[in-house]
Amino acid sequence: MQTEDTLHPEGLEPRGALCVECLGEVGAAERVLDRTGAALCRACAAAFYSTCPGCGGLVPTDEALARNDTGDLNCFECFGRPAAAEGTEALTDEEVAALVAEYVALHEELKRLDARAGEIKEQLKQAATARPRVSNAVVLRADSASVRCSYTSKAAYDAERLAAAEALLGAEGFAALFERKVTFSAVKNRLEEFLASDEEATAPARAAVRAAETRTEVATLTVVAQRKKKKSS
């Protein structure tokens, strides 16, 4: 099959009426053209030129480049292109054009679908806020489908404000509640127990931790897999 880079001799415009090798006059019926449109007599073409398997054009044999993968003599442009995978055929111009058109259409459709899905997702999250939660999630249903909007809570801590809690707790007490990173990550169970306690000695530290805390809620929407109906026996 021809690739989209295959040369069509009838599409080349001849440059000159003399053979570029022997400088003899060449009639239109006997003339062949190299890949650039230069005129050649048939004898010189057979003696000094090779057909590039990549584009189908005639290239001077002493200028052709041998591929390491196939050993074929290629023109400079085709030499730089990877060979087709073994056992596969090159696509025709028509096949390539059809794939390009389909890909562009699908690409645009994917963008449209992604944008619309994002709009619907935000509307469903908004709808979930007005419905009661069960196990910190809301299930929204249709006739044959459903989605679950689940909620997780994440807390962030201001480093400067949390330093006040560290000074009150001491290094060991603070390390029991927080892992020191670039940002502070709470040891969740221990911290919750600490904040829920009513010990007067740690009340200032608890207040400092709460002042440093910023709590946000993240909603995640996922498609619920449908259960297969059991066949009645």
Q: Write down the overall geometry.
A: elongated
> Measured on Cα atoms, how large is the radius of gyration?
37 Å
Number of helices: 6
Order of strands across the main sheet: 7-8-11
Q: Which class of secondary structure composition applies to the elements? A: alpha+beta
* Main sheet specs: 3 strands, antiparallel
Strand content: 15-25%
User: How far is it from the N-terminal to the C-terminal residue, by CA?
Assistant: 57 Å
Query: How many beta-strand elements?
Result: 11
Low-confidence stretches: 1-6
Q: What's the average pLDDT?
A: 83
Q: What is the share of helical residues?
A: 25-40%
What is the helix/strand order? EEHEEEEHHEEHEEHHE
Could you characterize what this model shows?
- It contains six helices and eleven strands.
- A hairpin with a 5-residue loop joins strand 1 and strand 2 (39-40).
- Among the domains are: 9-79, Herpes Virus-1; 137-223, no CATH class.
- Helix content is 36%, strand content 21%.
- It has helices at residues 42-48, 76-79, 93-128, 159-177, 188-196, 203-212, and strands spanning 32-33, 39-40, 49-51, 58-60, 65-66, 73-74, 137-141, 146-157, 178-180, 184-186, 213-223.
- Helix 4 packs across helix 6 (203-212).
- With 233 residues, it is of the alpha+beta class.
- A three-stranded antiparallel β-sheet has the order 7-8-11.
Short description:
The chain has helices at 42-48, 76-79, 93-128, 159-177, 188-196, 203-212, and strands at residues 32-33, 39-40, 49-51, 58-60, 65-66, 73-74, 137-141, 146-157, 178-180, 184-186, 213-223. It has 233 residues and is of the alpha+beta class. It is elongated and about 110 Å long.
